[in-house]
């Protein structure tokens, strides 16, 4: 007897331009196929296997040149959403992103997981988003049947990617080369194994006198908090600053199989102290 | 725009031979290799991208074939363990006893072979990072590490020693 990993059928559509992709998505929607965009497809396959997700069509974005853009041009870094995390790490145009992306899943999986997929996906950690929350100049370029928009990354990402329409595509992320070269900090702690979802991930960037930081795994979704950053920049020892910053966590600290809330707070405090030592002094 | 409506033929190269299996659009590469092409070297383990037993090489990069649709392979080159053809890493696993039950071995061989091709001068950290993608439930990691290390040292030092001789 044969068993199929994916227990439902779908159409596979492979457009070669953004216009074709958006049109294919619209037609599949009209046909009632509940289409989804596909890049690495790892989440769709794993959620599909357990029937937590189903669809009648997938629109594969990998063959669209704009989503594969990977260059530094005129002082601006362009990172297409369909680049794999392995490609992003190997080119290393944005060192903090290299550190963050280089700890997502495992080495082989990073040849399949894409930058856009990590940021727009269902798995809530979205660790590749942290560097873009921190870089002042980071912007997201998006396209839908209603046109194109380029906006500051923080305007479309508040823990998850907020799209205006179901057919909207994250095309690329951009930032200034100067931001990419700022001193940076990255730490990912896991419960046991090196390869795992984060107990918490802390990423930081210093721009002039300002130290910015963002967490994944501390609360239900990744975040950057100006209130916490101001608390860390206040008076006192690094431990006192870290403790004051953690009083301002915007949301409930997670308490799950990866770690209790109290343990996460403890690990977050030591990570913040180290971040302050590395970037703040 | 290329479209596969639920099922049809997908053409790609497997171990140097052009193949055109008839597949569902939702079929994984792992399923097609084993059920349609009779290549059972890639093993179904977790079928969730965690264990690495199903690892193959696609266009030179290791890929977990349970996380790839066959449709995505159209026009690409896939190498399975059957296509290694006595590669140095296979001899090294024999020489160093790099397996116990053997179920994970083909996946480890593919990752190790891809590493040796991509980074013959890889150090300990890089080697560990590549091998962390795979799990051996017999926990034979020491011997696997020794096997991979011996291939990397041979490749880095002497190209004429690419073929590791089998244990006498």
What attributes does this structure have?
heterodimer, A: 281 residues, alpha+beta, Uridine Diphospho-n-acetylenolpyruvylglucosamine Reductase, domain 3, 3 domains, 5-stranded antiparallel β-sheet, 11 helices, 32% helix, B: alpha+beta, Ubiquitin-like (UB roll), DNA polymerase, domain 1, 2 domains, 5-stranded mixed β-sheet, two-stranded antiparallel ribbon, elongated
Protein model, in words:
The complex is a heterodimer of chains A (281) and B (168). Helices cover 32% and strands 22% of the residues of chain A. Chain A has 281 residues and is an alpha+beta fold. By secondary structure, chain B is α+β, with helices and mostly antiparallel strands. Chain B contains 5 helices and 8 strands. In chain B, the strands form 2 sheets. In chain B, strands 4-3-8-6-7 form a 5-stranded mixed β-sheet, with helices on one face. Chain B has a two-stranded antiparallel ribbon with strand order 2-5. In chain B, strand 6 and strand 7 (61-64) form a beta hairpin. Chain B is elongated, with a radius of gyration of 16 Å. Classes of the chains: A alpha+beta (281), B alpha+beta (168). The A-B interface holds A 2, 4-6, 8-16, 20, 24, 40-42, 45-46, 48-49, 58, 60, 62, 86, 105-109, 111-112, 194-195 and B 1-7, 24-28, 30-31, 35, 47-49, 52, 55, 61-64, 66-69, 71-72, 74, 111, 129-130, 132-134.
